Amino acid sequence: MKTERSEALFERAKKTIPGGVNSPVRAFRGVGGVPRFIRRGEGARLIDEDGNSYIDYVGSWGPLLLGHRFPEVIEALRSVLDVGTSFGAPTEREIELAEMIRGAVPSMEMVRLVNSGTEATMSALRVARGFTGRDLTIKFEGCYHGHVDSLLVKAGSGMATLAISDTVGVPASFAATTIALPYNNIPALEEAFAAHGDNIAAVIVEPVVGNMGCVPPLPGFHQAIRALTEKHGALYIFDEVMTGFRVAHGGAQSLYGIKPDLTTLGKVIGGGLPIAAYGGRADIMSKVAPVGPIYQAGTLSGNPMAVSAGLAMLRHLAAHPEIYTDLERRAAALCANPPKGITINRVGSMFTWFFTDSPVIDWDTAAKSDKAAYARFFHWMLEHGVYLAPSQFEAAFLSAAHTDDDIALTIQAAHAFFHQ
Ligand code: KE4
Asked: Which of 117, 130, 359, 416 has the greatest number of beta carbons closer than 10 A?
């Protein structure tokens, strides 16, 4: 496979952009080699600057549930350009999007639009602290909630991939407000609440983890968190930036029957444009400025471009619920019959092939995976035209644009790897 252009572009990029990338996980540090510089995306495919075509299972890390350049999203963007890109003033579109989100995720009685998942989780955490008057947060090892200072503690995603020591650049006093516990471990949670219950503002969780690789919740885990947060007056924050409109139209909370106090969304709700949201109980959200004293703001929050793309996405998903059953069928086919030595975790159209033969239920078990073997697999698949997440500790995503042929080709390439 020719990669001269990507190699040259990578060398050039490194001169002006740290690591040559605008987000660490893109640098292929977890798997080695040269990141592919992408020229365009189309449906389920990426085409790189050397003309190589790949079946894309990253999908911009989750937003592209309908594939690259979904026509209705592109059309919405084209038409909004006739009126403007940003006004810094309220528009009707923002109301429509907030209403659509509330329609799909009823626990989000009030919604505030922001520009990234990080902004959403940072804001939700500030609101939780302000509402409860408490400072402590519980998160889970291997979960990643964006690069929020106080949450970069035992975080997943790029932090796990790069084995970056926790909280570099974050004051110890910030990190000290975060208690990181093992995911799926109820006794550890009960212990933390017994010790700090009255000082805990919130528990924030990826309801299905994507950022240590895909790790589903064990039965009863979310129910235990819900009961403990209620008992101790802490808020329950579902970080659905990745799972929202991905694992189900109503997100993970509709799958597990949990009503969080606050939810964060991102990725899919923007269809590839920078937009995210946080929201939840009206009594909590009424504390947000300008109504309440908890400040949060953003120049481009709710801008017409991103909101138009989001509306096109959510309107299509609302009109086509069959997308989720079809994604389930095809993702199940893709992840059927794991080879020896591979553990596959999957919820809906997000999944991870862990190079370990023991169950992966938390960071410690995920970390036992053979990263070098994953890297070999990654490069084999890349050479065979399949673009997986460049890290063992990330989720892969199937989109509605992937065809049965794409899945057959992927299975064929994987089968050849395990039988070479
Ligand atoms: P952003 O700030 O990257 O939009 O969202 C942060 C975030 C928050 N919560 C969850 C559950 C997330 O998965 C993310 C971001 N996910 C990563 C993928 N592992 C984004 C990819 C990247 O960092 O380049």
From this structure: 117
Residues 171 and 265 both lie in one domain: yes
The beta strand positions in 122-163, using DSSP E, are 136-140
d(CA 333, CA 381): 18
Measure CA of the first residue to CA of the last residue in the chain; give whole Å. 19
- Per-residue confidence band for 265, with pLDDT thresholds at 50, 70 and 90: very high
Cα–Cα dist 68/45, whole Å: 7
Ligand 1 midpoint to CA 285 (Å): 23
Active site positions, annotated: 144, 239, 267
- Predicted TM-score (pTM) of the model is 0.98
Q: How far apart are CA 214 and CA 360, in angstroms?
A: 9
Per-residue pLDDT of 356-382, as tens digits, reads: 999 999 999 999 999 999 999 999 999
Q: Which two tokens stand for residue 84?
A: 């403007």
Q: Structure tokens of 20?
A: 């040559």
Average pLDDT over residues 327-344: 96
Ligand 1 pocket residues where CB is under 6 Å: 23, 25, 61, 116-118, 121, 144-146, 157-158, 206, 210-211, 239, 241-242, 266, 276, 394
Number of separate domains in the chain: 2
CATH of the domain at 193: 3.40.640.10
Which of 272, 300, 319 is the last residue before a domain boundary?
319
Q: Are 161 and 113 members of one domain?
A: yes
207 and 288 housed in the same domain: yes
Confirm if 241 and 265 have CB atoms less than 8 A apart: yes
Atom of ligand 1 nearest to the CA of 26: 24
Helix (H) or strand (E) holding 399: none
- Bridge partners of residue 114, in order along the sequence: 276
What whole-number percentage of the chain has pLDDT above 70?
100
Could you identify the residue written with the tokens 């009255």?
198
Please name the residue ranges forming H helices in 14-132: 71-80, 92-104, 117-132
Summarised one tens digit per residue, pLDDT across range 140-181 is 999 999 999 999 888 888 888 887 767 688 888 888 999 999
**What DSSP character marks residue 91?**
-
